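FAQ: What does the model actually see?

It sees only this:
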Amino acid sequence: MMTQLTQELIEILTLEKLEENRYRGHSRNFVGKRVFGGQILAQALRAAADTTNRPAHSLHAYFLLGGDINEPIVYEVERLRDGKSFVSRQVRAIQHGRTIFTALVSFASEEEGLEYQHPVPSYPQPDELKGEKELKESMMRFVPKALQASFMQERHIELKPVKSDIRNFFQPKPIEPFYAHYVKTHDQLTGEYDTVSLHQAIVAFYSDFILMTTALRPHGLSYLSPNIQCASIDHAIYFHKAIRADEWVLYDMEATVTSNARGMNHGRMWQHGELVCSTVQEGLMRLRDLDA
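And it is asked to produce this:
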C-alpha cells in the first residue's frame, strides 16, 4: 500500500494534457507561499518527456518569477529538434499570463562508449544514519512555537543526512560549504508508476532541496536567517545513467564560490556505486538591512 505522501507526490507530477504540447500542473505548499523550484523543474521535465520516448540526459533552467501556489501552471513545450541522436525541447511555465520559468531539455537513448567516473565518496550507509525527522525533533527546543508545525512538516521524500549532528538552522555557525544526504521516495514505484519519466522527474524534484543553501554555510547563515534573501536563479541537471528514485541515492553537495550576492553550488548523485546524476545551481544570497 502506497503512503499518502508518495501518492500526493505522484499526483503533483502528473500533468493534465490540454492539447498537443500544452499541459497544466497544480501546486502544493512545499516551502511556503511561492511554488517550490523542484516542483517546477519536475513538472517541466514531465511535460517535455511526454513528447518523446527517450530518457532525458540534461536540463538547463532559469527561474524568472516566483510562482503562486494557489493558481495552476501551464507548461508549453516547443519541439526544437528531433534528431537521430538527440531530441531537444524548450519548456515555458506560464502563470497569470507571464512566463515564470523556462528550460531547455535534451533527450538521448543509451549507447555504448568510454566509461570513467569520479571516485565514490566514503560515507556511512543509510541504515547507519538517523532520519531527518528524528534529527529535527532533537532541535525543537531552538524552534520558535510559531514555526514548529512548518519545521516538522514531513517531506514527500525521505532524507537521511550523512552527518548526525544536523545543523541548527536557527543558530547557525560558519562551517565548511559541504553537505550530503541519502534520499528516496517513501515507497517503491511499481506498475504504471515505474517509468523512466517519473523516476527522472522525482529526482529533479528533490535535486532542489538544500542545494542552494550549501553556499550559506561558510557565512554562518541558513535559509531561516532573518537578514538573508534566498532564491534559485538557475538550475542544471545531467542524467549520466539510469536512476531509480525509489532506491537510496547519495546526494553529495558543495559550494565553490559566493560573490555578487550569488552562490554557486554543485551536486553529485551516486547509486549502487555509480555516479548517476550531476547538478549545478546558482542562487541569490542577498543580505538585507533589517533596520531599514
